[in-house]
Structure formats: structure tokens, C-alpha cells
Amino acid sequence: MITRRLAVLAHSGLQALDQAAVRAVVRQAVRDVRTAPSPPPADLSTGPLVAEGRQLTDKLFASAHAIGELMLEVAPAYLSDSEAANGALALLCEEIGEPLEHCLAARRYALTGDRRALHGIVL
């Protein structure tokens, strides 16, 4: 993905790929991979109730991801969970009325894109 995006950038008429341009391409690619929706399960039921349940689940995970991104703005990814919890993250969680454990799980989900990070928290 990164190679393809850099090739497109190089062929766009840009004279030289500087460090800032490459960094921006890599950051955007990482963000796109992290926020890409999970592939749907192989066995999709056609029932309307099941489809509605899946849509609701996807909305729950999307909101958890958005909360996680907010948590990452306050406590960047290089901080451990304990460092993040001891900093401004605890104050933010208290302010928005979310338990710290939920916010930390959402932060891990935003970092990894792995829904298992929310096990026991969202569903």
C-alpha cells in the first residue's frame, strides 16, 4: 500500500520526494489500515434481524474507535496503559463520564483495530 501510494505521488509531477512527504504518506497509510473496517464474516445470514444486529454492532465499535482516537490525542501511543491512566486520561474519563477501564480499552482498540481489545467492555 505504501509503495503504491509513493509511486502515485512520484508520478504526480512532484520533483522530489522529501522526508515530510514520505512521512505523511506512511502516516496516512497506517491510519487507513487501523481504521479499515473488519471484513464481514463468511457466513452472512440474510435475515433482517441479523442484518440490523450487525449494523448496531458496527456502530458500537465505530463509536468505541472514535473514543479511542480521542484518548490517543490525550495519551499518545508511546505511553503505557499505566502511564496514560496516571496522566490526563483519568481526568478526561471522569469529565466525560466513562470508566477509565473502558477508555483504556477503547485506546487499545484505536491502536490495534482489534475488536478483542473491547472484550467485556462493549459487548
Description:
The longest helix has 27 residues, at 48-74. The chain has helices at 2-10, 19-35, 48-74, 81-86, 88-96, 100-112. By secondary structure, it is an all-alpha fold. Helix 3 (48-74) packs across helix 6 (100-112). The chain is flat, with a radius of gyration of 18 Å.
Measured distance between first and last alpha carbons:
32 Å
Tally of separate helices: 6
Characterize the largest beta sheet: strand count, sense, and whether it forms a barrel.
Answer: none
The Cα radius of gyration reads 18 Å
Mean pLDDT: 83
Write down the secondary-structure element order: HHHHHH
What structural class results from the helix and strand content?
mainly alpha
Helical fraction equals 55-70%
Low-confidence stretches: none
Strand content: under 5%
What is the general shape? flat
Please name the defining characteristics of this protein.
123 residues, 66% helix, flat
Write the layout of secondary structure elements.
Elements: H1 2-10, H2 19-35, H3 48-74, H4 81-86, H5 88-96, H6 100-112
Helix pairs in contact: 3-6
Could you write a compact summary of the structure shown?
This protein is mainly α and about 120 residues long. It contains six helices and no strands. The model has no long low-confidence stretch (mean pLDDT about 85).
